[in-house]
Design goal:
single chain; alpha/beta; Lyase, Ornithine Decarboxylase, Chain A, domain 1; TIM Barrel; 9-stranded mixed β-sheet; about 30% helix; binds ligand LLP
Length: about 425
């Protein structure tokens, strides 16, 4: 599953002990494993080999430049949703032709930039955006290859904040609208809709949901073909799950067994495929390393107060997400073999694991059974490599955490911890605003 394991009673990332990283980089800090990232990418490549898809890593889940460079070196393209993410993908050495650009709110400037540089696939979210793209590409006299995002109206069965394939969410257009839009652009000299884009949510823990969404999409593609439209690309989006608990998520092969047979006939006809995985590559490739600041016992409860909470990892409080966590150096008889909500050890204590921020919502786990801990102990929060640092905030004037990338027996700082001076640097000089 990943390369975080206990060696001689102490948690390691590959060959490096997390305690040694904490003593040189301090906490809070995200620690990533190179071997895990590579292993996850290779598993997806092999599971989907029959479709030979372009695997566009979803930058939003883990946008650190060193991670993106590593992912690009494995042959991946990138899925981006903003000029900032585009800049990161390019800086990581990904050519524009291997970039899929999505997002419901791309500005005029963002679209102009994407069209001018020739991104491989510009995903269109609405009739209104299509109209703007048609205008910009005409003004620039630059052809652009578009994929229309279709909303299949399938419930991905995930948290309401991350379900995107239901008709009433802000994403994509209905099949009926898609047909109108394909027809309306049939003879456009520059803006060519050549693809269909799909993304039903994240994480999608039932592989069959992809089957349902694809069945709707394949019917649409067939109708479009009858009307004389050729679909060259099908972008399936992301959403594959990760093991927040051991064995919880389908594997890439499980997803592939639902997806690949449905698409093989189209592959034979020359269709190209894009996948946009993020979480299933990065989530278990990263842990958040924290230090316990204080153990507070009050009102019959034990609060493990750490040096970061929702500011470093928003997922527990924002999505009620479960993240397994465990002391970096637990008592010898309490080395967990599985990551589970109910570890079966004697002498565990029921705790709320919280951060230092001034909100009751600032927690990482509630009512969690953990080994006894003391002030100064290190705690590792697992499966934090995706949507951890990328959603971190500076709330309560907390500097953003450091990021460390481990490869074998060596660890590199790939983002330094912010300093208190960094926090005020944008506000030090007031400048007049010209009217
Ligand atoms: N493609 C599109 C169009 C997306 O909107 C997303 C994620 C992905 C690909 C990548 O999905 P993944 O393979 O990582 O599941 N912050 C939330 C997740 C939001 C996902 C947003 N879109 C979380 O922490 O669970």
């Amino acid at each position: 599953m990943d390369h975080f394991s206990f060696v001689n009673g102490s948690l390691h990332a590959e060959g490096v002990s997390l305690a040694s990283i904490a003593s040189s980089v301090e906490t809070p800090c995200f620690v990533y494993s190179t071997a895990t990232l590579q292993d996850h990418i290779r598993k997806i490549q092999s599971a989907f080999a029959d479709l030979d898809p372009l695997i566009c890593f979803s930058v939003k889940c883990c946008p650190n430049l060193s991670i993106l460079s590593l992912v690009a070196a494995e042959g991946c393209g990138m899925d981006v949703v903003s000029p900032g993410e585009l800049q990161r993908a390019l800086a990581a050495g990904v050519p524009p032709a291997r970039i899929a650009y999505a997002g419901v709110g791309k500005s005029h400037a963002a679209l102009t930039e994407a069209i001018s540089m020739g991104v491989g696939c510009l995903n269109v979210e609405s009739a209104e955006e299509l109209e703007l793209i048609a205008r910009i590409s005409t003004d620039l006299r630059t052809p652009v290859s578009l994929a229309l995002r279709v909303n299949p109206d399938v419930d991905a069965g995930t948290h309401r904040h991350t379900t995107t394939g239901i008709r009433t969410t802000k994403f994509g257009v209905s099949s009926a609208r898609a047909m109108e839009l394909f027809d309306s652009m049939r003879d456009h000299p520059f803006a060519r809709i050549e693809g269909v884009h799909l993304h039903i949510g994240s994480p999608v823990l039932k592989a069959e949901r992809y089957g349902e969404a694809l069945d709707v999409t394949l019917r649409l593609i067939e109708h479009l073909a009858h009307r004389g439209h050729t679909i060259r690309t099908l972008d399936l989006g992301g959403g594959f799950g990760a093991d927040y608990q051991s064995g919880q998520s389908p594997t890439p092969s499980d997803y592939a067994s639902v997806i690949v047979p449905r698409l093989q006939p189209l592959k034979k006809q020359g269709m190209k495929f894009i996948l946009e995985p993020g979480r299933c590559i990065a989530a278990n490739a990263g842990v958040l390393l924290l230090r316990v600041v204080r153990i507070k016992r009050e009102a019959g409860k034990t609060f493990v107060i750490c040096d970061a909470g929702m500011n470093a990892l928003l997922r527990p409080s924002h999505y009620d997400a479960f993240h397994f966590m465990w002391p970096v150096r637990p008592p010898s008889q309490q080395i967990p073999l599985r990551r589970t909500a109910e570890p079966e050890f004697a002498n565990l204590t029921r705790c709320d694991v919280v951060g230092p921020l001034c909100e009751t919502g600032d927690y990482l786990a509630l009512d969690r059974m953990l080994p006894a801990m003391q002030d100064g102990d290190l705690l590792a929060v697992f499966t934090a490599g995706a949507y951890g640092m990328s959603m971190a905030s500076r709330y309560n004037a907390q500097p953003l955490p450091a990021e460390v990338l481990v490869r074998g027996n060596s660890a590199s700082l790939v983002r330094r911890r912010e300093s208190l001076t960094d926090l005020i640097s944008h506000e030090m000089h007031a400048t007049p605003v010209s009217a």
